[in-house]
Amino acid sequence: MNKYLIDTDVLIELLRGKQKVISYLDNLHKEGSAFFYSPVTKAEIFHGIRKGEEGRINLLFSSMECVPVTDEVGEKAGLYLKQFRSGHSTQMGDAIIAASAFYAGAVLVTCNEKHYPMKDIKIVIPVKQTKARLQ
């Protein structure tokens, strides 16, 4: 079974009804893929929702599995921040999301490849529907 950790920006595009993202995720679902998210993503989504959207958002998250922020994830995120502290736009949340994908053994699905310069995780960009960096 293939595993995919879904980044915040992809979930936002899904919630907005962006057809390319919907089709991409639907195809993965039909293939029997498993979907994961980071608690950072849940925090970012809940930070931006409008009143009355909580039920819809909770339903979305109930269809995925949360990758907990463990000690190992925290350490890996810190090492990412240290490694990419100059010349990249890697922020704490992105580092935790990337570390979560690493420890879940999941491909990171994002529209923001530039936020993830890490070479030890696999990334796909659904709006391009191409594999950006699979190693």
From TrEMBL:
<feature type="domain" description="PIN">
    <location>
        <begin position="4"/>
        <end position="115"/>
    </location>
</feature>
<keyword id="KW-0479">Metal-binding</keyword>
<keyword id="KW-0460">Magnesium</keyword>
<dbReference type="GO" id="GO:0004518">
    <property type="term" value="F:nuclease activity"/>
</dbReference>
<dbReference type="InterPro" id="IPR029060">
    <property type="entry name" value="PIN-like_dom_sf"/>
</dbReference>
<comment type="similarity">
    <text>Belongs to the PINc/VapC protein family.</text>
</comment>
<dbReference type="InterPro" id="IPR050556">
    <property type="entry name" value="Type_II_TA_system_RNase"/>
</dbReference>
<dbReference type="GO" id="GO:0046872">
    <property type="term" value="F:metal ion binding"/>
</dbReference>
<keyword id="KW-0540">Nuclease</keyword>
<dbReference type="GO" id="GO:0016787">
    <property type="term" value="F:hydrolase activity"/>
</dbReference>
<dbReference type="InterPro" id="IPR002716">
    <property type="entry name" value="PIN_dom"/>
</dbReference>
<protein>
    <submittedName>
        <fullName>PIN domain nuclease</fullName>
    </submittedName>
</protein>
<keyword id="KW-0378">Hydrolase</keyword>
<dbReference type="Pfam" id="PF01850">
    <property type="entry name" value="PIN"/>
</dbReference>
<keyword id="KW-1277">Toxin-antitoxin system</keyword>
